[in-house]
Amino acid sequence: PSFNGETSELLEFFEIFEDLASSCSLTDEQKCKIIVWYTDPLTKRFWVTLTSYKSKDYTVFKKSILAKYPRANRGLQYTIQDLEHVVLNSANSEITTETELHQYYQQFHPIAVWLETNSKISARERDRYFWQGLPHSARKAINCRLELKETNYT
User: Fold this and answer.
1) What is the C-alpha separation between 109 and 59, in angstroms, rounded?
2) Three-state DSSP class for 122?
3) How many CB atoms lie within 10 A of CB 22?
């Protein structure tokens, strides 16, 4: 794992680190010492100056770190604008291979799922956004294929 100082990624960083630390049976003291190895130099300098770092109590250290990052406890969040950005970029590009379609889906899916799970968009809106993100030529090809395969498709 690594942490680059991005507040929205802090909870995920802790989760991954703690899973690894647990699998290695690290003590609290070892966790405090080792977690800073996975941060950028500026973050490391900041974290080691926290009083809780010297306490060698990982739970206290983690709590004091989270207190220094406003909104970190919310984790990763997305906006409809984030989704629209992905959709617009994709719609203005060419998707001619399965790999390119998969790349679009990898960008689209996490944002759309978060927005739907948090009641920011409906499933219908999610599907509409996905369709709009496909370039016109891809939508046209899909429509032609569906017309051939589905007798009730219009």
Assistant:
1) 33
2) coil
3) 10
